[in-house]
Each structure stands twice: as structure tokens, then as C-alpha cells.
Write a structure and sequence with these properties.
Blueprint: H1 21-24, H2 45-51, H3 53-70, H4 76-89, H5 91-99, E1 100-102, E2 109-111, H6 112-126, H7 132-141, E3 146-149, E4 152-156, E5 158-160, H8 169-172
Antiparallel strand pairs: 1-5, 2-4, 3-4
């Protein structure tokens, strides 16, 4: 059971490299949107709070009762901040948005070599901490299954945008059928055969 809560006071939100629910359900940003200028500083705030000590104590007790009955409820403003924070840290989504065309078509495939080369080129500008292994793991988790074609491994369900395609892109990972244990037929390779003359021996 969790026994401690870590609070971090920062000027900028920390970089979060993970994207799984186990991380994000534990992160609750608390927006500090109020800015008090130097000429607006209330030097007597301590005395004012002391004068309201009975009301403050009453509010603390009511809050404790509410927590015992209903548990800890995340305020809407904090949940909204988390919903905005999470996509900003989603490096894989940013990479896919910039580099790939998501088709979810199993016939659309990209070789790992072309995919990683495109990632390295993209990452040279954005400078993320994501590795090839981390990218592969995230693509698998998001439904871009593994495939093999022409002896090369890759991912299905997406294509590279033209500006990230290598010169030999169309030839490097052709969408040939994945045969598995099926017997070879010419139809698998798009070759039509009408048959020979039935009188031929």
C-alpha cells in the first residue's frame, strides 16, 4: 500500500518518458496560476489567518470527514492539467504525427530499418530520450504489429510520409503475401495462369 506522496515544486513540468497508465495515474499536476506582484504582497497575512483559526480548523475537519467517506478525489482543474500534460510528453505520438501516415491497414508496412532511420532523422531535431527499443515496444503496445516481408522485419498499419521515405522505399519492403505454412501458388504473387492446352501431353 502506498504510504507516501512526493510533491515536486518546479517552474517547468518534468519530462516523463513513460506513457503507460501505471505512471500517469500517479502524476497529478497542480496548476499554480495566481501571480502576486511585489507591490501586492500582504505583509499581515499571518495575522489575518490567525484571526480565522476557528474557521480554518472547522474546514480541515470537514475535509477530513469527506476524505474518510469518499476518498481522495482529484479536482477538475488538476485532471484537466494532467490531460493536457500527458500528450505533451507522448514522444511516440509526436513522432507518428510528424513522420507517419496511420492507415491501420495490415497491408501497409514499414521495415524496421526505414522506420528507425526516419526516427533518428526526426529525433536529431527534437532530441528525445526515446530509444529504438522503446519505440518498438510502444508501437507494439499501440497495435502496430510485427511483420516480415522480403526477409526484412517491420511494422504494419502505417506508412512513412514522403519527406521521410528513402529513395528505395517502394522497393525496400514490398507488400508480398505472408505465406506461412500455405503452399505456394502463382496467384499469391499476382500471376494469373489460365492453364495449358488440355490436348497437350
Amino acid at each position: 500500500m502506498p504510504k507516501e506522496v512526493l510533491f515536486m515544486t518546479t517552474n517547468y513540468l518534468p519530462t516523463v518518458t513513460g506513457s503507460d497508465n501505471g505512471i500517469w495515474r500517479r502524476i497529478v499536476p497542480i496548476p499554480m496560476t495566481t501571480v502576486i506582484k511585489n507591490n501586492e504582497t500582504d505583509t499581515s497575512i499571518g495575522d489575518k489567518l490567525f484571526a480565522e483559526q476557528n474557521g480554518i480548523l472547522y474546514q480541515l475537519i470537514q475535509t477530513a470527514k469527506d476524505h474518510q467517506q469518499n476518498g481522495l478525489r482529484i479536482p477538475i482543474i488538476c485532471e484537466n492539467a494532467r490531460q493536457q500534460y500527458c500528450p505533451e510528453m507522448d514522444t511516440v505520438k509526436q513522432f507518428l504525427d510528424d513522420v507517419a501516415i496511420i492507415t491501420n491497414n495490415p497491408n501497409d508496412k514499414v521495415s524496421n530499418r526505414d522506420l528507425y532511420n526516419a526516427f533518428d532523422r526526426w529525433n536529431s531535431d527534437v532530441e528525445t530520450h526515446l530509444t529504438h527499443q522503446g519505440l518498438s515496444k510502444e508501437l507494439q503496445r499501440r497495435g502496430f504489429g510485427k511483420c516480415k516481408s522480403n526477409g526484412k522485419h517491420g511494422r504494419r498499419g502505417l506508412k512513412l510520409k514522403p519527406e521521410y521515405q528513402p529513395k528505395n522505399y517502394l522497393k525496400s519492403f514490398k507488400n508480398v503475401p505472408e505465406i506461412g505454412n500455405k503452399p505456394l501458388t502463382m496467384e499469391m504473387f499476382g500471376i494469373k495462369y489460365s492453364g495449358g492446352n488440355s490436348n497437350e501431353q
